[in-house]
Design goal:
alpha+beta, 25% helix
């Protein structure tokens, strides 16, 4: 009886730990009106920003959505919903060069983004080290190709991206 109880408990714990992780490398956590998704699925990211023109080889992103529509009983007065997106987009060298060539022909004022904005807590160590080694005089670039409010930090064949309403 004790072994049966232990087996059932271990099985329940196992399935509760893997809940929310799909085959596409996506983890979704819902807490009240807050939805957090961490994913490596390019198709899911393409629903959030336009990556059709400059399609990355690999992505990893964290998307946080606050549903303030009033559908959740926690919000009594509906209001605008908020979201926050952090992403790493990795490109092959020819796509990245094409992106750079088009970008450097755009006339813009430097936005002066802080590199700390792009130091995501979920970054892999290699990307974090590459970010920390970037030139301190570089202050990021506006995301002309990914949306008006998008902020970018350019690394070698990678772009760190931040977007959101808050």
């Amino acid at each position: 009886m004790r072994k049966l109880f232990l087996a059932i408990t271990v099985t329940i714990l196992f399935f509760s730990c893997v809940q929310g992780t799909g085959k596409t490398g996506t983890e979704v956590i819902k807490e009240g009106n807050k939805l957090t998704m961490v994913s490596t699925d390019t198709a899911k990211l393409s629903k959030l920003i336009d990556i059709a023109t400059h399609k990355p080889m690999h992505v990893k992103f964290k998307y946080v959505f606050f549903d303030n529509s009033g559908k959740d009983k926690r919000v009594t007065i509906p209001g605008p919903s908020d979201y926050y997106l952090q992403a790493v987009l990795q490109f092959d060298s020819s796509t990245f060069k094409n992106l750079e060539d088009k970008y450097y022909n755009v006339d813009y004022l430097p936005p002066y983004y802080d590199r700390q904005t792009f130091k995501f807590d979920w970054l892999d160590n290699d990307t974090r080290q590459e970010l920390l080694k970037t030139d301190t005089s570089y202050h990021g670039t506006p995301g002309f190709f990914f949306g008006k409010s998008t902020k970018l930090w350019v690394l070698k064949n990678k772009i760190l991206l931040v977007d959101g309403t808050n």
